[in-house]
C-alpha cells in the first residue's frame, strides 16, 4: 500500500521524480557555465593537452549525466524535493570561494593578494567543505586533505604539466638557485602523503582503542 500511494499521487504529474529532475538540471547548468568560462582557453589535443582539455571533458561528462538524470526523472518515480539544512550549502560554497580566491595571485586596486597555489589552497578547501556535515572530525579531514592534495599536485603539475599554480608564490620566489619547481613539488607531495598516512594510522588506532574500551 505504501509503495502504490506515491505512484497514484504522482500519476498526473509530468515530473515523476522532482528531486532528481532538479538535481539533473543543476548539474547541467553548472556544466554549461563551466563550458562558457572555458571558451577562451585552449583545449589542445591528446598529444599536447591544453589547460582547458580536462576541465572541458569533465564539464561535458557532468552535463550529459545531468541531462540523463533529468530525463529519467520524467518517466521514473522518485522522491519529492525536501527541505535541506543550510549548513551544507554554506560550507561548500565557502570552500569553492576560498579555493578560487587563493589559488592564484590577483589584485583589486591597491590590494594585492599573493597566490597560495594548489599546495595550500586545496587542503584548506577540503577541510572547509568537510565541515558541511555536523559529523565532521578535524583529524579525519586533515588526513583526507593531506592525502588528496599531493595526488592532485602530482597529476596536474607533474604528469599532465597543466598551467595550474601548484606552489605558493612566496615559495617560488624564495627557492635557492638550482632548485627546480618539479623537485620541490615531488618532495612536498611525498611529505604530505606521509603526514596523511600518519594521521590515518593515528585515527584508526584511537578508534580501535575506543571500541576496545567500550567492550571492556
UniProtKB/TrEMBL annotation:
Transmembrane segments: 21-38, 58-76, 88-109, 115-134, 141-163, 183-201
Keywords: Membrane, Transmembrane, Transmembrane helix
Keyword hit for Transmembrane: yes
Domain of life: Bacteria
Protein known as: Tripartite tricarboxylate transporter TctB family protein
Native source organism of the sequence: Rhizobium rhizoryzae
Organism phylogeny: Bacteria, Pseudomonadati, Pseudomonadota, Alphaproteobacteria, Hyphomicrobiales
